[in-house]
Each structure stands twice: as C-alpha cells, then as structure tokens.
Design a protein that fits this description.
The structure holds two protein chains of two kinds.
Chain A lengths: L15 H32 L24 H4 L2 H7 L2 H5 L2 H27 L8 E8 L2 E6 L33 E4 L1 E5 L4 E7 L4 E5 L4 E5 L5 E5 L5 E7 L11 E7 L1 H12 L16
Parallel strand pairs in A: 1-5, 4-10
Antiparallel strand pairs in A: 1-2, 2-3, 5-8, 6-7, 6-9, 9-10
Chain B lengths: L1 H4 L9 H6 L4 H31 L24 H36 L8 H20 L18 H4 L3 H28 L12 H32 L11 E2 L2 E2 L8 H35 L6 H14 L18 H24 L10 H24 L1 H7 L3 H31 L5 H27 L19 H16 L2 H13 L56
Antiparallel strand pairs in B: 1-2
Helix pairs in contact in B: 3-4, 3-5, 3-16, 4-5, 4-7, 4-8, 4-9, 4-14, 5-7, 7-8, 8-9, 8-10, 9-12, 9-14, 10-11, 11-12, 12-14, 12-15, 14-15, 15-16, 15-17
Classes of the chains: A alpha+beta, B mainly alpha.
The complex binds protoporphyrin IX containing FE (HEM) and copper (II) ion (CU) (2 copies).
C-alpha cells in the first residue's frame, strides 16, 4: 500500500495532506535546529577543549559592569537593565526568540485553523453518510443510518450477541439501518459523519491512512468526520489499550465507488429480518 | 541545630541505627540510591521480556519461558494479560520507584544538605520515614505479580473503566497511595531544609543550580501529588465499594450489564491523572538538569552562562507545568475547543526549556573543557535530551498529535527525554559524587566503556521507535503483527530489541565498577574535581553532622578562573 518502514503511510482522506504537511514541516525544522545546534556544540567542544596553555576565560558576569552602552531611556527599566548588563546573555536568548516566532506562526496559521476544521466542527455537507460506531471489547460495530439519514434508537436491554448494539428493530428509523461487525464500507469522495461510542472501556478509532484518530469513551457520544479520497482497503485499528485482546481489535474499511457501495448496501439490507423491514420501503440511496 | 537532636547522645550507634534505620541524610541517600538502582533493573528486566514478545511475537521466551506459571505464559509464550501487566508495571516501576527516588531521594538527600552547608535535613526522622514508606510501597507493588489474576494490566495511566474491571489494580492503587505519601514527606523536608537550614552567607542567589532544581521539584511534588492521591482513593472506592466516580451508566462488559455503573465520567480520572503526571515529567527532568549544570560548570572551569536565566527558567517551567496537562488529552473526547488553550500553554512552556538548554550549551564557550567520565555523561545529555524535547513539538501541536498520539512516536519521545536524558545525567552524577560518598574514585576505563556502550545502544532502541511511530504503529500492542499496518515497520522492533539486550550488557561494567570501587577504588583527596561548591568542603565521606564547624559562605557557587588568583577555583567557603 505504498508504505515504507520509516515514513508516513499513504494519505487517503481529504485532510490527511494537511496533517502530513505539519508533520514534515516540524520534522524539517527539528532537523535544522538539531544540525545547527549540533554543529555549534561540536565546534565549542573542539575549540575550548582543555590543553596545555589554554585557560578558561570568564565572560561578563552579573556583577561586572555593563560593557555596551544603552540609551538612558531604555536602561531605566529594571528588566531591561538586567538584560543589557550582559551582552552574552542577551545573545543566548536569540534561539529562543527564533523558536518562539516559529511556534507562534505554527499556532496561528496552522494548528488552530486546521484543528477547528478537523476536530472542533463537523462540516455542513448536503448529503452525508451517517454512521454510528459502537466499540466494545474487542471489535467495532458499524451502524449505518441508511437512506433516511436517521439512526434507529438503541436500548441497552436489547443488547444480545445477535444484536450487539441493542438496536430497536421495531422502530421505524431502524428499518433501513445496517449493522456490520469490523467491516466498514464507504463511497469515495463522500463525507461520512460518525458518532463514536463505546459500550465498555475506552477504545481509540484509528485509520492510519485517513490520519483519523479519536478515542471512544463510554458515556460520551463523540462526533467525527472524514472524506476518503482513495479507493482500496485500509485497516481500522484500536489505538488505546482496551484489555488482553487489544492487539486483535481490528477491522477493515473498504473505500469503493458510489455504485459499488450502493450495490453492497442493497445486498445487506436484504439480510435484515422481516420484522425489521420498513412499511414503506426506503428510497434509493 | 538539627544534628544535635539526633547526635550520638552518649551511646554508640548500633549497626541497625547506623545503616538500617538511620536518620542521617547521607545514609538515607545511599539507601535510596541502591534501592532505586535495583528497581530500575527490575523495570528493565520486565521490559526485556516485553521486547522479546514485540520482536518475535508468539515464540517462547528463551531461557526463562518455562519459569512462568502456565496461565501467564502457556508453553513459554507470553499471554496478552501477562504482556499488559509487564507494560503497566514497567512504566510504574520506572517512573515512581526508579527515576524519581533516584533523582530526588538519592541525590537530593545526599547532596542538597551538603551544598547548602546544613548538618542534616530539617526533619531527620521524617526523612527516615519517607524511605521506610517508599520501600514497603515498592515491595507491595512488586508483590502484586503474585496476586490472583496477576499485576495491574491497564498501563501506568490506569484509565477507567478498564482499570476498574481489570485484575491487579487494587494493589497498584494501594501501593500508589503509599508511594505518594512517601514523596510528600520528602518534598516537605526538602522545602523546609532549603528555606531554613542554609549556612550563614548562603543567600538564594548563591545556591547551586542543583539546589534550585530540587527546590522547584519539591514544590511540584507537593502540589501535584495530592490530587492523584485523592483520585486513586476514588478509583479504589469504585473498585472495592462499587461507587461510580469514573463509571457512566449503561456499561455492558463482555455482554453483561455492569452492576457498578452509575453517573460518573471516565475523563475525570484523566484530568486528575495528567494534572499530576505532566509536572511529574519535570520532576524526572529538573534534578538531572541540575546535575548536568554542576558537572558542566566544574569541567569547563568557568561560571555557568546565565545562572539567573536558568533559575528563572526552572521556576517558570514549574509554574507552567500545571497548565498544560490536557495536551495528553487532545483526542480523548475532551471538548475540542478547549484544546487550543492547552496548545498555547504547551508551546509557551517550550520557551523556558529552550532557554535552559541554550544556557548549558553557551556555558561551554570560553571554557577549558575536561572530558572526564562525569563530563561525558553531562555532555551526552544535551543532544539526546534535545531529541526528546524536539520530538515533543509535533505531540504538543494539536493537529499533528491526531496522528502521532498513542503511537510508538510517543514512546520514543519520552524515552529520549527520560532515559537518554534523565538517566544519562543521573549516571553522570554517580561518577561525579562517588568520591564524596566513599572517598574513592570509580575506574575511568570501565566508566568510558559504560558511557559509549550505553549512549549508542540507547539511540539504537529509541530512534527506531520514532520511525515506527511515523509508520503508524500503535503502542501497547501485545502482538504488533496482528495489525497489518504494523508489518512494514516490524523490522525496527527487532533492531530495538537487540539494542536493548546490548544495553543490558553494557550495564555490567557499571555495576562491577560501582561495587569494586567502593572498596578498592583509587583513594581521592577531599576535593578531587577542584570544585567550588560546599559539598567538597568537608571530608569524604562526611562524618555525622557533615561539617566540623558550620561553614560560612562568601560568594556565588561557580567562581572558577577568577583573574589574579593562584588556583582556577575559588571555593564558596574560602574567605579570600
Ligand atoms: C532502556 C530502558 C527502557 C526501554 C528499552 C524501555 C522500553 C519500553 C517499551 C518497549 C515500552 C512499551 C510500550 C508499549 O507498551 O507498547 C515502554 C513503556 C513505558 N516506559 Fe519504558 N523503557 C525503558 C526505560 C524506561 C524508563 C527509565 C522509564 C521512566 C522513567 C520508562 C517509562 C515507560 C512508561 C511510562 C511506559 C508506558 C507504559 C504503559 O504503556 O503504561 N521506561 N518502555
Ligand atoms: Cu484496543
Ligand atoms: Cu505532558
């Protein structure tokens, strides 16, 4: 799947590129900082190594008088005085300033806007796929709302191994719903809006290729969304320790064309028990 | 004076009073030293088992496989439950029983009173009590492996509801409460000692950086631990009395409705836990930084660059560390708009951290650098810790953390900070202060073998973890090959495992060197490093009560290479 042992997996969602941009940018900056500092560090070690005839030289210290002249108006401030007293100390704050500027730019132009668009809000799309994912030890239940866009209600007392999410099949909204275990299908280039839930402990829904990760916390209903941009099969994995079989908690997401997806959905719908069939059959998806 | 209270009082100290239930800060410091090194080895051994499973999942553990009960390791192959216990106990032991007691209990206890010219800690009996609370707490933690169902399995973070339904957690919580109590006793003692027991002339701006580091650390411990202690008691009640502080309603556990579920909230634990555990990171890092500063000043033969900048940075880090805890919770389900606040505070805390590192590097400038063994460790700390610090950036940034959170990138990041950073510095501290403890020196050649072996193998363990994390590999997976997306990076697991076993081999010269030098090491004069700080102004090892007469302090801590003097060091106690 185009993956290398030391690099990011292929990017397959609309926002994956934005996340990758940040990861690469920061790593480039990190590498730059590390190489610059490292060079300076090694230079200092070689240049100032102890050897006969070479003595340490003290730099100006807090209690030695200022060497550089500063306009009176500035040096009157107590803090400014502390800084200007020592030229060297001031210089050593330069790396701090540079890094701070870089960080402020990252926060203002990158982190806050991109984060808001991914996590803090779900985009307004005309016709989203609506899905509820109910996680449990050790699997993912994927509950499609179907063409009516309404998720059938769930009741804890209906939970049973044949009905893992306790779907109230008698309810009208459930009529066109489909529930899958560890298998998710999505049409390419369409936004899916997901409610993430858990029945028991904390899990974390993670699809590396989508750069999508979100904890599923019992008692909370956490919204998330994604727009897959590449067809193919990707892995759904659990990123939060959830018990002894945590490493077996996995599923697959198949990203398909709209036609393939519709055909699949219809075939699944036919498997729903008669009691759950709608009185007026739902319209085409 | 405190040392009169517990002075020999006319009777000879018995063996028990002198070496076991001693109230002398130096004996307690060495007790902490040996105990925490042993716990580090235990934690390391647990990790060695995990590393086998991670590199070669499903294959029997060589040599030791048959020793484990068959429910933990059927046919010598580790089970998922056992793996999770090893993970949780490795993390807990390393942090709470290894590094903190070593950094604070051992070095703080031994060195701090000497450096401020005090005869002992302010409350010697409380000091003894804090060690004798730590040791039983630690033994109880280890004993939990013998409980039915085994040790805790929910990670050192113990997130409910998992921690409430998993076995082993009750003992974990009990021993945490005991260990926290021990730390609190120690923290109070350090604060009172630093404030009240300084020798005449030892003003705040004459304190060595190490003392400042311990002081800020103690404040962090004092303020951060009580919330965790309270949180642990609540979790204990959820487990034992079926309250539901952390359990929401309608839980269905493995197909059964869970009786104990009520109106609680799992995220409450995470907030309380990280409110401790983020400052805890600085508890792990500040004392080692203080050690590095001491060693660098001594071996560059010039004053530290920006002493005040360093002190202010440490204070700033201490204050800020209470405002960033939720950067561990960006994708936990906490309100997504709250994240922006923690994003900003996290970036702000990097400013004093960069300032500290800059001061250390600039301190080399103009020096006459001696490359002895302590100095090698102090120097290695700088680039290795820098990797740890830099890799924190993409984790502190909300957007990139979406992908990297809970992957091996996190494991790589904090091990660079804590292992290649803190532990490297703490090892340097051992070589540096060993002559003070025993009046003898550790062997130089063995020290160099230990140094080069340790630093290179560490990089061989933790750098692959960063690559695995970028590939998307999740942490805490018992069998990484069960998840297809981990297969391309599985080779790195093998590299990391072999590096870890090599790292273990390179600790043998250190252990041998330590015990051999204790009795056979080359004898040293009182001030073998020609240092300026007070701990070198008394005999090695210092007698009960430390100084023959209370020292007077005339100047700052790092007066090296003062022009016009015969020697290049001017001790704080030398009048002229
Ligand atoms: C050379 C020494 C060490 C090695 C090779 C090592 C390796 C590891 C490994 C493989 C994991 C497991 C990650 C997983 O569960 O997937 C881990 C977890 C951890 N380690 Fe270490 N470690 C070392 C030392 C330390 C030290 C000194 C500390 C702390 C002071 C520490 C703290 C932790 C923590 C907190 C965890 C997380 C445990 C959890 O998942 O709950 N480690 N380490
Ligand atoms: Cu899981
Ligand atoms: Cu943190």
């Amino acid at each position: 799947m185009g993956k290398y042992g030391w690099s990011l997996p292929v990017a397959a969602s609309s926002y994956a590129g934005k996340i990758d941009f940040g990861i690469w940018l920061i790593h480039a900056a990190m590498l730059g900082i590390f190489v610059l500092w490292g060079t300076f560090f090694v230079y200092l070690l070689v240049k100032f190594r102890a050897r006969p005839g070479h003595n340490a030289v003290r730099e100006d210290h807090d209690d030695t008088p200022a060497r550089i002249s500063v306009p009176d108006s500035i040096s009157k401030f107590p803090f400014a005085q502390m800084l200007y007293k020592n030229k060297g100390e001031l210089k050593s704050l330069i790396p701090d300033m540079v890094i701070m500027t870089f960080e402020v730019a990252l926060i203002v132009f990158y982190a806050i806007p991109v984060w808001s668009s991914i996590k803090a809000s779900v985009p307004e799309v005309k016709d989203p796929i609506r899905v509820e994912i109910v996680s449990e030890q050790f699997g993912w239940n994927i509950h499609y709302a179907g063409p009516d866009g309404k998720l059938g209600p769930r009741k804890m007392e209906l939970t049973h191994f044949s009905n893992p999410i306790g779907l109230d099949v008698a309810h009208a909204d459930s009529a066109d719903d489909v529930v899958m275990g560890n298998e998710m299908r999505l049409p390419v280039d369409r936004t899916v809006v997901i409610d993430l839930l858990s029945k028991d402990v904390i899990h974390s829904f993670f699809i590396p290729e989508f750069r999508l990760k979100q904890d599923a916390v019992p008692g909370l209903n956490i919204p998330m969304w994604v727009t897959p941009t590449k067809t193919g099969k990707f892995e759904i994995t659990c990123a939060q320790l959830c018990g002894f079989a945590h490493s077996l908690m996995r599923g697959d997401v198949h990203v398909q064309t709209q036609e393939e997806f519709d055909a699949w959905y219809k075939s699944r719908l036919a498997t729903i028990p008669a009691s759950a069939q709608p009185t007026n059959p739902a319209e085409e998806f | 004076m405190a040392h009169d209270e517990h002075a020999h009082g006319g009777h000879e100290l018995s063996f028990m009073e002198r070496y076991v239930f001693s109230v002398d800060h130096k004996v307690i410091g060495l007790q902490y030293l040996i105990t925490s090194f042993i716990f580090l080895l235990v934690g390391f051994a647990l990790m060695g088992l995990m590393r086998w499973q991670l590199a070669f999942p499903g294959t029997p553990i060589p040599f030791f496989g048959g020793l484990f009960p068959s429910d933990l390791a059927p046919n010598g192959v580790m089970s998922g439950e056992f793996y999770n216990s090893l993970g949780a106990m490795h993390g807990t032991i390393m942090v709470f029983l290894g590094v903190v007691p070593l950094a604070v209990g051992a070095y703080g206890n031994y060195v701090l009173p000497l450096q401020i010219g005090a005869p002992d800690m302010a409350f010697p009996r409380m000091n003894m009590m804090s060690y004798w609370t730590y040791l039983p707490g630690g033994i109880l933690m280890l004993a939990s492996f013998l409980m039915p169902g085994g040790a805790a399995q929910s990670g050192w973070t113990s997130y409910p509801p998992l921690s409430i339904i998993n076995p082993g957690q009750t003992v974990w919580l009990l021993s945490m409460v005991i260990l926290i109590t021990s730390s609190l006793l120690g923290a109070i003692n350090f604060l009172v000692t630093t404030i009240n027991m300084r020798a005449p002339g030892m003003s705040l701006w004459r304190l060595p950086v190490f003392v400042w580091a311990q002081f800020v650390t103690s404040v962090l411990l004092l303020l951060a631990f009580p919330p965790l202690e309270a949180a642990s008691v609540l979790q204990l009640m959820d487990r034992v009395f079926h309250t539901s502080f952390y359990l929401p309603k309608d839980l269905v556990i493995l197909g059964q409705a869970y009786a104990g579920s009520g109106g609680g909230q799992p995220l409450l634990w995470q907030h309380l836990f990280w409110f401790l555990a983020h400052p805890e990171v600085y508890v792990l890092v500040l004392p080692p930084m203080g050690i590095v500063a001491e060693i660098i000043a001594n071996n560059t033969r010039k004053p530290l660059h920006g002493y005040k900048t360093m002190v202010f940075s440490m204070i700033a880090i201490g204050l800020m560390s209470f405002m960033v805890w939720a950067h561990h919770m960006f994708i936990s389900g906490m309100s997504a708009s709250l994240s922006n606040f923690f994003l900003v505070t996290t970036m702000i805390i990097s400013v004093p951290s960069v300032a500290l590192m800059t001061c250390l590097v600039f301190s080399l400038k103009g020096g006459s650098i001696r490359f002895n063994v302590p100095m090698l460790f102090a120097l290695a700390f700088i680039p290795l810790f820098a990797i740890g610090g830099l890799t924190g950036l993409p984790l502190g940034l909300t957007v990139t953390d979406i992908y990297l959170h809970d992957t091996y990138y996190v494991i790589g990041h904090f091990h660079f900070v804590v292992v290649s950073g803190s532990i490297i510095a703490l090892m340097g501290g051992t070589y540096y202060w060993f002559p003070k403890w025993y009046g003898r020196k550790m062997n130089d050649t063995l020290g160099r073998i230990h140094f080069w072996g340790t630093t290179t193998t560490m990089v061989g363990i933790f750098l692959p973890m960063l690559f695995m994390g970028l590939g998307g590999a999740s942490r805490r997976l018992y069998d990484p090959t069960a998840q297809l997306h981990n297969l391309p990076v599985q080779g790195w697991n093998v590299v990391a495992t072999y590096s870890a076993y090599l790292l273990a081999l390179f600790q043998i010269p250190f252990i041998y060197n330590f015990f051999n030098s204790m009795w056979n090491g080359e004898k040293t004069p009182e001030n073998p490093w020609q240092a300026t700080t007070l701990e070198w102004a008394c005999p090695s090892p210092p007698p009960h009560g430390n100084f023959e007469k209370t020292p007077t302090v005339y100047r700052g801590p790092y007066e090296y290479s003062v022009p016009g003097r015969k020697t290049d060091f001017w001790m704080q106690t030398d009048k002229n």
